[in-house]
Amino acid sequence: MAEKEQGFRKMLEKSIVENIRIEHPVVLKGQYETAYSLLKDALDTGITPCLVGPPGVGKSLLARKVAEDTARSFHEVFFDENVTPSRLIGSFDPALVVRSGRNISSFEPGPLIRAMVEGGLFVAHELNRATEFCQNSLIAPLEERHYHLFPLGMVKAQESFAFVATQNPIETSGTYRLSKVLVDRIGCWIRLTYPTKETELEIIRENTPAFSLPVSALDKIYEMVKATRESHVLEIPASPRSGIYLTRLVNKYIERFESEDAAIKFFAPAVLAKEMKVRGEEGKTVAKVVDEIIKKVLS
Questions:
Q1: Model pLDDT, residue 171
Q2: What pTM does this model have?
Q3: Which domains, from first to last, does the chain contain?
């Protein structure tokens, strides 16, 4: 048992890396080319940007791409109503405080403080899911590029420190309005929508290993994803991620089935329904909507 545990710890040590690099090429076409340029230009001039768009359109990937291209360390927090300022800033280890008091050695920094000290890029994912109390804890780092860490003193951010916010559309359930004070500190609003067919198909191909599907199969997958976005019943439709996942499955296992339609029909319900949400109309469920779309596209 001890040998097994020791072996695991050696494997864990080898698995630790400074930063995870982007595995697949990032498609910078159309709205993504514009958004990338705006994001980079805003950060280069010390302006805090916010990427606004529905889930799965690539907001996080664009931020990671900028961090990688500018050689910044990457830090992130996914916000919801349970995230507190201490999750961002860090906290003092009680055991170490008892032994040596509240000092630098007993402080465990959170991702925001790490980004400030390292001059990295911090991404506040879905910032409009944070409570106003948590939002207001970001004002000093955004405006003055510092944070008062009692009792250590003022932590001043490095010149290369950058803050990027992302948020879902305000009409999405579970979101809050950003406080006016915080909105005043965000100087560049970059809006993303679902990509054009040409761009989305390229994204799907780039993110599907050993892509070999016929054009007809890929078109059917895209038409299904597109149909969810055109449905008035769905509050949250399928994102580009759904198209990627469905394509990967069909691409790898199509030989199991008698036709491409059979493969798509088998995998589509499990993939498309994963993130979709109906508006609450009587008699409508995600499964029913997906079934109707599959029948329509494959008929």
A1: 59
A2: 0.86
A3: 14-191 (3.40.50.300), 197-298 (1.10.8.80)
Angle at 30 between CA 26 and CA 31, to 5 degrees: 85
CB atoms inside a 10 Å sphere around CB 32 = 20
Residue at token pair 């915080």: 182
User: What is the H or E stretch that residue 34 is in?
Assistant: helix 31-44
Label residues 230-242 b or e (16+ Cβ within 10 Å = b).
ebebbebbbbbbb
Residue 56 has pLDDT above 80, yes or no: yes
Q: Which of 151, 176, 297, 156 is nearest to 225 (CA)?
A: 297
DSSP string, 70-112: TT--EEEEE--TT--HHHHHEEE-HHHHHHH-SSGGGEEE-HH
CA atoms within 13 A on the CB side of 103: 6
SS3 43: helix
Cα separation, 132 vs 16, whole angstroms: 35
Let me know the angle formed at the C-alpha of 264 by 263 and 269, rounded to the nearest 5 degrees.
115
CA distance 168 to 278: 17
User: DSSP characters for 106-160?
Assistant: GEEE-HHHHHHHHT-EEEEETGGGS-HHHHHTTHHHHHTSEEEETTTEEEEPPTT
Q: Cβ of 125: how many Cβ atoms within 10 Å?
A: 20
The pLDDT score that the predictor gives to residue 249 is 97
Work out the end-to-end distance of the chain between its first and last CA atoms, rounded to an integer number of angstroms. Answer: 57
